[in-house]
Design goal:
With about 180 residues, the protein is of the alpha/beta class. It contains five helices and six strands, in the order βαβαβαβαββα. Bound molecules: flavin mononucleotide. Its cofactor is FMN.
């Protein structure tokens, strides 16, 4: 088992594709193969030293899941397991997918919801990301310091920036993870 676990929620597969890119760039020695969050339980997550968790925002600023009209269960159904979880001692980095043009007032809100839930578990959050280069009206993923709670990728409007953003963020979180 590697030190880093990668878990994602998705409806149409983009967040899975990004998880695979992250895994490829980190390599087998550092990170295990990404898994859909609807196929694991909290014990699987808490067995890692470090976690990378990804989510799209769906519905109206929601986490993916049946309530957001997704095809399968996802983060929304997993969230209750985080309620009683103790992830202290684990470092967690988050990434979120969203669409800043069509959902400008609720851009990557799901990332903000996931951040709040993970904060409650006592885990150490890393991977904050500057909000420069995105145009939107509002986002629940913005922290008090003006940064996003994790890496933000807009596959609908800025997919050409994925490689550069991913490379920069992975360098950053590797330093924060100490790997
Ligand atoms: C029905 C629907 C609702 C969406 N709602 C939001 C939203 O509220 N905020 C946002 O930033 N993006 C929203 N998006 C954009 C998705 O987050 C984006 O397309 C993402 O890449 C999808 O990821 P997936 O392929 O992993 O499901 C929505 C997309 C769809 C199709």
């Amino acid at each position: 088992m590697a030190d880093i676990g990668i878990f994602f929620g998705t409806d149409t597969g983009t967040t899975r594709k990004i998880a695979k890119m992250i895994h490829k760039q980190l390599g087998e020695d550092l990170a295990d193969k990404p898994l859909n969050i609807n196929r694991v339980d909290i014990d699987t997550l808490s067995s890692y030293k470090m976690l990378i968790l990804g989510t799209p925002t769906l519905g109206e600023g929601q986490l993916p899941g049946l309530a957001a009209d997704c095809q399968a269960e996802s983060w929304d159904e997993f969230l209750p397991q985080l309620d009683d979880a103790d992830l202290s001692g684990i470092k967690v980095a988050l990434y979120g997918l969203g669409d800043q043009v069509n959902y400008s007032s609720e851009f990557v809100d799901g990332l903000g919801e996931l951040y709040d839930a993970i904060c409650e578990t006592g885990a150490e959050l890393v991977g904050e990301w500057p909000a420069d280069g995105y145009e939107f009206d509002d986002s629940a993923a913005l922290l008090d310091n003006g940064k996003f709670a994790g890496l933000v990728l807009d596959n609908d409007n800025q997919s050409e920036l994925h490689s550069e953003r991913l490379a920069g963020w992975l360098e950053q979180i590797k330093a924060e993870f100490g790997v």
